[in-house]
Amino acid sequence: MQIDATKEANAVVMSLKGRLDAAASSEFETSLSDWISKGDCHFLLNFTGLEYISSAGLRSILAASKKLKDRNGKIFLTGLHGPVEEVFKISGFMSIFRVFATEEAALKEI
Amino acid sequence: MAVLTRLRMSARLENLGRFIGALSDCAKTQGFGQEKLSKIELAAEEALVNVFRYAYPEQPGDVEIICGLEGERLAIEIIDSGIPFDATAMPVPEVTDGDHEREPGGLGILLMKKVMDEVRYRREKDRNILTLIIQKD
User: What is the pTM assigned to this prediction?
Assistant: First the structure.
């Protein structure tokens, strides 16, 4: 999996490419934690390049989201499609996170 | 079950990719399309990761996967010799409350059950055998 992170004015945009499976989730969690410990509290996860996610991936997003709660921070999502969107739907995670159609739309509103 | 592929390795996360690759290749040769392949990979990962995490609390052990056909349906058996564990009997977490971690592995089991047509468990000769079944396209 490849993670590209860019700091925008109101959020850190993390674009994920490849597979967020049990083998990749700890790397992703560490990357998110590093940004959180630097003081960033709004994250936009762009899943346009993500082909696959499992419960381990979902849990790493949920763990970061719980950490951010104390700091009034939040995780937003965009680029959900195909099997990744399906997993978000059937797990109920669609109702936990705010999902935007595009990165531009998200950055306007966050 | 008509066996197509068999693979046995130690029950470790570093082997996840090879297990999933072997199952995916097996399903591809049976004509499964991308949408169902993703479901097969997801259910198999959830089942395997549960074995990696919980089956062998004391001594390391192996896990074997068998990919085969039951009539027109693909059947994947995931076999370990660890502590008895019936994933099909686990309570499935509520999906709306945002707190999925009341039971370890609960979210993975929920996904596995939702994407497969059938999930069966049996305990046989001190082994856990979980069978994931999915209909062909």
Answer: 0.93
